[in-house]
Design brief:
heterodimer; A: globular; B: six-stranded mixed sheet; 7 helices
């Protein structure tokens, strides 16, 4: 009976130690990444390949998601606004909501599902099939060859994707607003353009760059440290998507509350 | 005696489990050294320590009389002087055969001259022709993957070649083909070879010298021709493949 007193503190202690070890490993991985980022060789061809894979190939999924998000946002704001006779705010709220919040967050989460999982599975497979060891024996630093191009490509791609997502999302709101809710096209466009400021768009783009880093970095980290064969590949992929998604939402709150509330 | 590689009292543990226990071994230049031993005796860990994929806990490794450690492995450009054939070939999935074979050459030669010619030449040495140059690893059979990996290993004309279980997973005929290829490329490249295997047929065929590992230490070293008369009960049991003898299989190992 006496020994059961220690079970809960022991479990908590183990979890805390495990968490500290994970934070330490991520910090070391980040340090290696930063060192690799600024020291040659630079794999430009690999970076361009990743820009296509991460950026260009994500366009359809980001575009579709943004369109429907803009549309549903218009519908919900119309329903909510009509309770206060404020239906006219639909265009303004859709524009602000998409550019400041939903554009970057939805794009980040979609990229976490699509890209973080793919990066993690690819690098984890390379780890368990000794391809990463083979890179080292061929005088190639895996951090420079695999991690840096992917993270850079995501940091560059996501802001561009978010600009496109902003435009398509606002278009989604416009289509629903004018075709379903009966707004006049000219006034919807005028309300949208009147409310948006450069700061709103820029805040979304800065968030997008941070989210891009999180998505690719988590994919690379979990893939690179994968162990345990096929099961390990699956585990690292799940961890990459879950950790990237949580970090996107957490960093979104922190960025918004610290930097973008004014 | 001229040694290309000297290993002194190398030790490595994972948690409480000691895998390399003050292991010492010297590798003669231009000879084919085979290291045999059962599963879990430390063969792969030894190889990974030499290659710098794992840092040993203690001991020293010397390559051409220069110490090999984390700091100076890049300084002496160790990896450009070696070739490695991995157990599962470890070809890069995203690259075709030519890109795989010449991957390391791009690092050495910034002019990237005659990469196709080099790839074709190396493929020829492993019994393949240029028709496979544009194929991807997933389009090759296991035996062909091993051959392409062998071509990649010899592409930079290395001083030292490593073979990790080169015949594992191959049928006996293909295993013999790979053994012959290993002998041919070692002779042609003029390299020293270190092979780890538990395939005795392969060991006898490709080895000049054989060392046996047991519990993380070298328990016997000698000429390949002497292995059948080693008078070492551990070696005798291993080459006969008998469950009776001093080597006890612990189910927890």
């Amino acid at each position: 009976m006496y020994r059961y007193i220690y079970v809960i503190p022991e479990a908590i202690g183990r979890s805390v130690l495990k968490m500290c070890a994970s934070i330490g490993r991520i910090a070391i991985f980040f340090y290696d990444f930063v060192v690799s980022l600024f020291t040659p060789p630079f794999y430009i061809k690999s970076l361009l390949n990743q820009l296509v894979r991460i950026g260009y190939n994500s366009l359809p999924v980001i575009g579709l998601t943004a369109f429907f998000t803009g549309g549903v946002l218009a519908l919900q704001i119309y329903v909510g606004g009509s309770r206060f006779n404020a239906e006219n705010i639909v265009a303004s709220i859709v524009a602000l909501g998409i550019t400041r919040e939903l554009g970057p967050v939805i794009a980040g989460l979609m990229l976490a599902g699509r890209v973080s999982a793919s990066i993690s599975a690819e690098i984890a497979t390379m780890r368990v099939t000794e391809q990463i060891d083979a890179l080292i024996t061929l005088s190639t630093n895996p951090m420079k060859y695999l991690v840096v191009p992917r993270v850079l490509a995501a940091v560059i791609s996501l802001p561009i994707l978010v600009i496109i997502a902003d435009i398509i999302g606002i278009m989604g709101g416009f289509v629903v607003g004018t075709k379903t809710l009966g707004f006049i096209e000219q006034s919807y466009i005028k309300n949208t353009l009147d409310i948006i400021e450069l700061h709103d768009v820029m805040s979304g783009l800065i968030k997008a760059a941070v989210f891009g880093f999180i998505v690719a970095f988590m994919g690379c980290y979990h893939g690179y440290n994968s162990t345990g064969g096929a099961q390990g590949v699956g585990r690292s992929t799940t961890l990459a998507v879950v950790s990237a998604s949580i970090l996107i939402l957490a960093s979104n709150y922190i960025l918004t509350s610290l930097v973008f509330t004014n | 005696m001229d040694h290309i590689l000297k290993i002194n009292e190398l030790s490595k543990s994972f948690g409480d489990k000691s895998v390399l226990d003050n292991l010492s071994i010297n590798i003669e230049r231009n000879k084919s050294q085979v290291i045999i031993g059962g599963s879990g005796t430390g063969k792969s860990v030894l190889l990974k320590c030499i290659l710098g994929l794992i840092e040993p806990d203690g001991g020293e490794i010397f390559f051409n009389q220069q110490i090999l450690n984390k700091k100076n492995r890049a300084d002496i450009d160790f990896h450009s002087k070696i070739g490695m054939l991995f157990q599962g070939a470890a070809l890069f999935d995203s690259l075709n055969v030519q890109e795989n074979i010449t991957f390391g050459i791009k690092k050495l030669d910034s002019n990237h001259v005659n990469l196709t010619e080099i790839a074709v030449d190396k493929l020829k040495k492993v019994g393949l022709d240029s028709s496979v140059l544009c194929l991807y690893p997933s389009e090759l059979s296991g035996g062909m993957q091993k051959r392409v990996a062998l071509a990649r290993a010899i592409a930079r004309n290395p001083e030292l070649l490593f073979f990790d279980e080169p015949t594992t997973g191959l049928d006996p005929i293909m295993a013999d083909v790979i053994n012959n290829l290993i002998n041919e490329v070692i002779e042609e490249v003029g390299a020293t070879a270190i092979t780890i295997t538990h395939d005795m047929e392969s060991a006898k065929k490709i080895a000049d010298n054989i060392s046996m590992l047991y519990k993380g230490a070298v328990i016997w070293t000698g000429d390949a021709v002497d292995i059948n008369s080693s008078n070492n009960p551990y070696v005798d049991q291993f080459i006969k493949g008998s469950s009776e003898g001093p080597i006890k299989i612990n189910p927890n190992d």
